[in-house]
Amino acid sequence: MGHIIKYLYPNKYLSYIILNIAMLLILIIVLDLNTESLKYPFIYDGDMLQVYMHIKMIITGDFPFYAYPSSDFLSLPFGFNGADFPFPAASNILFIKFLSLFSNDIFIIANSYIILSYFMAASSMFSVLRRLRVESYLAIAVSLLYALIPFHYFRIGHFWFANYFLLPITIYYLLLLWRSKPLFFIKKFNEKKYRLDLSSRNAIIVFVLILFSVWNFYYTFFFVIFAFAVTISALYYRRTRYHLFSGLLMIFIATAPFAVSMIPYTIYQSVNGKNTQVALRGAEDSERYGLKIAQMLLPVDGHNNAALSKIKEDYSAAPLINENRFAALGLFGSIGFIIMTIFMLFHERYFSTIKKLSIVAYSGVIVATIGGYSSLFALLVTPQIRGYNRISIYIATLALIVFALLLNYLIKRYLPGKILRPITSLALSLIILRIGIYDQAPAYMSFDNYKKYINSFQSDKSFVKEIENEIALEDDKKVFQLPYMFYPEHPAINGMSGYTQSVSYLHSPQIKWSYGAVRGRESDKWIKRVIKKPLKEQIEILKASGFNGLHIDRRGYKDKAKSLENDLSKILNSGPLVSKDGTKSFFKIKPTGKEIYDLSYPLEFTAGFYGWDAGFGSWGWAGGDCWLEYNNDSNSGKLLTVSFKLGTLKKRNVSIFYENEKIKSIDLDAGQSEVINLSVKARPGKNTFIFKTDTKAYLAGKGDGRRIAFSFSGMKYEIGE
Fold it and tell me: CATH number for the domain including 622?
């Protein structure tokens, strides 16, 4: 009998084979995956274009895992530097680098990453469920549904969220904190005190947590929330300080690598000033993009059942509907969430695994839900974390584990017979899988969607090749792009999304492009000054700066750039090269120089300043510490005299440094302004004033998302010998 029962359940290795074959079949049959779809991008617009930029820079070595991205092929004329827009994801970068060993095609790598994420999510969930003693068939079914959570497909555009395979593993590690033996510590029978446990198991846990720390910073942040809650609960439940130490050590291991990965960004911003014009976030964003419990429990958008689809459609008329609509847990995830809610309402004499998982889930819910602790965190600490709805994938992980545990318990308790049980378990698992697929994967969830991008993709690729041929004889191939769009997060212009101009960079290994100028930095200022000039003067400046051509995206103009192209044709005495799909054009120009045309002002803010409201010296806010730079282009020292009025709405001190030496300290009361006069002997080259304040910036309010500190007005300067 025991021999027969043994073969009714697949062994460990066979289970993984069955799981991954089933995952492949689902991708092919349900999500329409085919070999043709791998050749073209699944998504070719929106934020995904920025992802492709990052992938290309990772492949070319311009984005190492230990630093920020930088490239000479973007953000002309001064080059691209991504230090103002942190992306601390070293392990994700290394994973992309690993995939690049098999292909150097950006789009094949991105598609491979997405496809692999399904197998990785299913396998990690299966591994955890088996460790929690869930029967094989049920574990396979739930793991497959976990990979098909709607969040997964919807987040392909938010690429770095799509591979959440580490979440089940980190949840399992949280459960270890509740065990009677404190994690990371050991005490032998004859010893009185605990000491660090340097076992191979703990070494693996540390390695995984380090990997996880720099995989996705949102997931790391959510994990820390969970870990704090579990640490408090474990301390209360176990009553030993070593359980407290274990939890704090886990939090440290999960956050220290992240902190280290932020060092290059921090150093850059410390030296060059914080860019207050990039990644502007307001405390109200935590409300706007917060978690909605209703969104988790309601059906997925466009559900296969018309009645359920209508229910979701009706709810979507409610306020604050945005990316939080991707939070649907599915039928079985919702059952798991409701079970956790019930377990939170009742006291148990036996502290079950489900109860523990319920504590984890609700510690996240009370933080992330709209109006939860996330709002206070955004208001009092930092608003930079704003998409709290993204915790829904962690909640889904917990909910499906709970569903599997409860069903597994019921199967073992109520299904009779050792032979009948595995057969019934298999049948029940197949039913759950079939219902779950129908519930979680509407017909529009398809990798066949790549077909709508084929024409534009092929047109862009061939057009860039034509441009390369046009300027093939040029040593340094530089192209200026219009309309101007700063980086990152530029609002859409007519038919152009914020990252549209990056596609040319993606298709060319030779040409350098003007797109990618970071808002508020050197290239951004230079380009803005160029495009304010008359068109003919613009062309002369570009020629003098070594540019070989003008690339125009017609979708950025209401008249499809007809007026601009007509004027350029007259100035250049030639017509444009036009892309096959008619959306882009190119004008070749002949460089007359190689040095960047100097458009800088002798005196200007380089960081920490939001800009003048009505031209230089008029009025403007600083977002905190700010940098004012004077460029002395002579070979001798100059006497620089600067005068301005400094104001504030909150009491503060402002200290002024010249070349790192404090030269003035001003105490300002709320609503007060004071005239400041500075006089220094400016050496040849760049001279820097740094304004530092002891009081944090605050939200401007009234719809203004900026954080403001102090103001400048009436600025004037004189230069003498």
Answer: 2.60.120
617-644 pLDDT, tens digit each: 999 999 999 999 998 888 888 899 999 9
Query: What is the C-alpha separation between 347 and 335, in angstroms, rounded?
Result: 20
Condensed to tens digits (0 to 9), the pLDDT of residues 502-528 reads 999 999 999 999 999 999 899 999 999
Mark whether 494 and 533 lie in a shared domain.
yes
Q: Taking the C-alpha atoms of 137, 139, 141 and 143 in order, what is their torsion angle to the nearest 10 degrees?
A: -150
Pairing of strands 673-682, 638-648: antiparallel
pLDDT of residue 350: 64
What pLDDT score does 190 carry? 77
CB 320 within 8 A of CB 288: yes
Are residues 631 and 654 both part of a single domain?
yes
Mean pLDDT of the chain: 92
Total count of residues recorded for the chain: 721
Amino acid at 118: Y
Cis peptide before 69 (omega within 30 of 0): no
Angle (nearest 5°) at CA 497 between 112 and 33 = 25
| Alpha carbons 46 and 157: distance in angstroms, whole number | 8
Are residues 651 and 710 in contact, defined by beta-carbon separation less than 8 angstroms?
A: no
CA distance 605 to 490: 21
Global pTM? 0.91
Q: Is residue 1 pLDDT above 50, yes or no?
A: no
What are residue 331's phi and psi, to 5 degrees? -55, -50
> Residue 535 falls within a domain, yes or no?
yes
Using the 3D structure, point to which of 588, 613, 631 is the last residue of a domain: 588
- Judge if 546 and 656 occupy the same domain: no
SS3 content of the chain, % helix, strand, coil (to 5): 50, 15, 35
Task: Provide, rounded to the nearest whole percent, the portion of the chain with pLDDT above 90.
Answer: 76
Q: What is the mean pLDDT of residues 316-335?
A: 93
**Please, where are the H alpha helices in 197-292?**
200-213, 217-238, 241-261, 263-272, 285-288
Residue 364, domain member (yes or no): no
Rounded to 10 deg, the angle between the 217-238 and 166-176 helix axes is 20
Q: Residues 609, 508: one domain?
A: no
Looking at this protein, which amino acid is placed at residue 40?
Answer: Y
Return all residues near 62 (Cβ < 8 A) that are at least 6 apart. Answer: 56, 69, 70, 71, 73
Q: What is the pLDDT of residue 270?
A: 87
Pick from 536, 559, 588: which residue ends a domain?
Answer: 588
Give yes or no: residues 472 and 559 share one domain.
yes
Does 657 map to a domain? yes
- Same domain membership, residue 686 and residue 635: yes
682's enclosing H/E stretch is strand 673-682
Q: Report residue 532: phi and psi, to 5°.
A: -85, -15
**Is residue 472 domain-shared with residue 582, that is, in the same domain?**
yes
Domain assignment of residue 430, yes or no: no
Residue 201 structural domain: 165-272
Counting the structural domains of the chain, the total is 3
552 and 663 in a common domain: no
CA distance 694 to 717: 26
